[in-house]
Amino acid sequence: MRAWKVWCVAAVSAAVMAAAPKVVGGPYVVNVSGRGATVAWIVESDEATFHPAGAAAKASPALHVEYTNLGVLQPGTKYEYEAAGQKGSFKTPPRGADPFKLIVFGDDRTRHDVHRKMVARILENGVPDLMLHTGDLVENGWDSSLWKLFFEIERDLLKQTAFFPAQGNHERNSADFYQFFQQRQPYYSFNWGNAHFTVFSSDIANSADTKAGRDALWAAQTKWMEDDLAANQNADYRFVVAHHAPFTAVASRQGDNPHVTALAPLWEKYHVTAGLFGHDHNYQHYLKNGVHYIVSGGGGAPLYDVNKPDPAITQKVVSVENFVTVSFNGKTAKAQAIDINGKVIDEFEFTAGGK
Ligand SMILES: [Fe+2]
Predict the structure, then answer these.
(1) Which residues are found with C-beta within 5 Å of the ion, ligand 1?
(2) In angstroms, what is the span from residue 277 Cα to ligand 1's centroid?
(3) Cα separation of 295 and 115, whole Å?
(4) Which of 108, 137, 143, 193 is the most buried (most CB within 10 A)?
């Protein structure tokens, strides 16, 4: 009788544990402006298992986002919050040209130990006001288990900053990317102090099932980008952010992204300060016709060589895991690229008021 009771309690407990929702990601903050923000967290409510017939099962967690919109915020203010049982904080963008600091990094997929070390290095360097991600957050955007791991590794960083990701090809235009980061379409823009950021999807291959659909999205996005840049010529700095870069020092990838390279004249016309990209797992810095091009794709994915840089435009190329910090103070914006061991590998300033 006693043994039956013990078995019964254990069985019921196991069933309850499997079904009990638990927070596995966040809280984190997206869509931060001077007026509002969204605090979100990821809940695992159950899991499915699947496998080829006769093979071992793989677990696939059932994830969904929960969120709350904070709609009564003031600019230039640090907010502390408590959500999903955890405390976090973030700053809203400053008024005018007050100082702020951002970081850029990308391509943290695949080598999770390296990703973890990179997050620790970023935290050691100082929590930024906002974090731009150049894409390839996970190896496959349709694999729920990878999102769960991404949020676990990024937890201590995401709960202290505002997060603005661009889609990489490994996100595969997945529904979870839009759900988790509260985005309605693959491109968006925002202001932070005296800087304007235009984030777009360079992953044209996964954007639609048909060529007509892909062409239509690219045309609409390019039109939106031109309108957006034209409307923000008064900002001291303009940045475009995406995954695929227009130029590369990787010999095997020369000319891979002609659709992005074709946008460079548009960025010159509208006095873009810099393009911030990923996809190549290394660090690259170019300067062409007044526009800086930064590739920071060394967040954890396997490194690529920088064996064919264009000498006409190259400022620095290094095959190392890295992130980039930019400290803005009025008309001064100092950038540093920092490798995973904390060594500064590139240092330069952006020129304010490109117009
Ligand atoms: Fe990529």
Answers:
(1) 136, 168-169, 279
(2) 10
(3) 17
(4) 108
- Residue 138 Cα to ligand 1 midpoint, Å, equals 10
Token pair listed for 301: 């994915």
Ligand 1 centroid, distance to 173 Cα (angstroms): 12
Instruction: For residue 280, report the distance from its CA to the centre of ligand 1, in Å.
Output: 7
- 123 residue type, one letter: L
Task: Report the residue count for the chain.
Answer: 355
Q: How many CB atoms lie under 10 A from the CB of residue 205?
A: 12
Q: Are strands 188-192 and 291-296 parallel, antiparallel or unpaired?
A: unpaired
Q: Quote the ligand 1 centre to 242 CA distance (angstroms).
A: 10
* Sheet strands (E) in the chain: 22-30, 37-50, 58-70, 78-83, 86-91, 100-105, 130-133, 162-165, 188-192, 195-199, 237-241, 274-277, 283-288, 291-296, 314-318, 322-329, 332-339, 344-351
Superfamily of domain 95-351: Metallo-dependent phosphatases (3.60.21.10)
9: pLDDT confidence band, cut at 50, 70 and 90?
A: very low
Q: How far is the CA of 328 from the centre of ligand 1 (A)?
A: 28
Q: pLDDT per residue over 257-273, tens digit each?
A: 999 999 999 999 999 99
**Separation of 247 CA from ligand 1 center, angstroms?**
14
Domain ranges for the chain, please list them.
Answer: 95-351
